[in-house]
Amino acid sequence: MLPHSVPDVGPQTRTAAERRVGRAHARSRTNATFPKRRCRRCHLGAEGEAPDLSVQRRCKNGFQGVAFISFFFFFFFCSGSRGAFSRKTITPPRYALKRERYIKKDIACTKSPHLNRKGGLFTAMATEANYANSGPYFVNYGFNLEQEHLPPYSQYDNRHVYHIPQQAPSAVPQYTQRVPPHFISSNQTSPSPDSISSTVDRRKVRMLLGAFAATVILAVTGIIVWYLVTVACLFGVTCGTSGKCISSSQWCDGIRQCPDGEDEEMCFRLSGDNFLLQAYSSKSRSWKPVCSDNWNDKYGKATCSQMGYSSDTYFQSGRVTQASVDSSEFMTVDTSSGETSVQFTNSGSCSAGSVVTLQCIECGLTFSVSTRIVGGTSARLGQWPWQVSLWCEGEHWCGGSIITPYWIVTAAHCVERKNSPTQWKVYAGKLTLSEMKTSIGSSVSLIAINKYYDSSAKSNDVALMKLTLPLKFSNSMAPVCLPNFGLPVLQQAECFISGWGALKYAGSTSDMLNYARIYLISSSVCNSRNVYGGLITKTMFCAGYLEGGVDSCQGDSGGPLVTKINNIWWLIGDTSWGYGCAQANRPGVYGNITEFLPWIFSIMQTYK
What we know:
Elements: H1 16-31, H2 53-80, H3 82-86, E1 89-90, H4 94-108, H5 117-130, E2 184-185, H6 193-231, E3 236-238, E4 245-247, E5 268-271, E6 276-281, E7 286-289, H7 297-307, E8 316-321, E9 330-333, E10 344-347, E11 354-359, E12 373-374, E13 377-378, E14 387-392, E15 395-402, E16 407-410, H8 412-415, E17 424-428, H9 433-437, E18 442-449, E19 463-467, E20 494-499, E21 514-521, H10 523-526, E22 540-544, E23 551-552, E24 560-565, E25 568-577, E26 588-592, H11 593-606
Antiparallel strand pairs: 1-2, 3-4, 5-6, 6-7, 8-11, 9-10, 12-23, 13-21, 14-15, 14-17, 15-16, 16-19, 17-18, 18-19, 20-21, 20-24, 21-22, 22-26, 24-25, 25-26
Helix pairs in contact: 1-2, 1-5, 4-5
């Protein structure tokens, strides 16, 4: 709708009173920044009439009150929104949008010839200064009918100037759409308090999640480190029985740190068929040959005693050239350690040019040259002097082998159900069972079964018997040698078995000691589908003939399987189990004594 206007009757028709009223009206408009709609009647009277002075006086008072209130709210709004303007945001007061229409209409009124056009334009300029920073509110410009553009004005006027965007004037007033009071930005939307709160909440959540993730990572890392250091013992050595982890430098240092003393039990060992002495180096965590510098028989006896042998059975020490061993590092005896407890130190050279060999007991010798053993031959006295018969409750039960005057090696399955020492007697140096019945056997003081023995799979099938009194060695009674580490046993080596077992499956025991020649069978063949189909573990091996005919049988369990290397007989197996006797593709199975050496020496040391 077009704004109301009065026909231009020309300035020459105005009286002095009317000119005074016009000047007063212009002053009132200058002071009233935001007139209310109802006061627009004060500008003009009825069409063609002079303004009503009484109404004009009342409106003048109203203009002044409204101007004061409007200026107060506008100042309050601008003061509170200064920070928002500095961020290029706009917070228009609700009343500004409402009164903008009156400003536009008020500007349009300046077209009247009864008013001072300059005063009316100044009022419009004063009004637009009030909203110079209010933002893009589009309104019509007030202008004179005689002019196409607004007269220029100073941008440095210190009065409130309402900024009107520069756009082409329109004949019809353009009214802005009512906008609900919220933050508006010309470039981007400023976040509301709710969005700021949600942003803060998201930051807190991210911080909490990051802290939680860091805690989890640290915990997992700690658990891994703890596992590697304690359980897996990555930087140390694990005690065999308890699983305790000790430093490698504490292994073989002369002080027992493991609960069962494993750290000091296997600090020495004999290697190969020449009895080469080796000592464990905690520095390199490996076995090194012992240089013969400062070595003598006193150190030899002390070393054998620490291994589990008795000093009374000590045989000899020897020397071999340094060139015969493949090693650039050596262990030398620590002369300050004493002669009862030998300690060694690492050395990069050996000035003597030779290393030590050590035999703690004379063993593996036979005194006759002259075959239950199915397909076997009767033995002669002294042919297998280490062979013993184990009697339980008055009858032959199993076989065994002498390794020292006190210790007998047998199979664990022989004693697992009858493990009381008082139930057993040991007969040595005899060829027939009949003469044993009239003899006094040796009593047993201790029976030790391998703690890893599995009765169902027959793995780790080994046990030790300790005699109450030592045996007196003779041509018919002598020990067999325990196999040294690295003993060069051929894959199909010739071996011998002996015992009083049955001569046929389910038969009665033999009164005469028999023996037989058999050959080792590789584990790959023995574990094949046609033989034992994977039942053979590293603690056992097969020996015999795949075609059958010669085998051990009932009553031979625990007896020796020996092989001869460098003119010495070595105990490399104990009779364990088999399917039937002397059947095809069912050879005898024997315990692997080499695998049992650490356990055997630990028992000998513990119960020396």
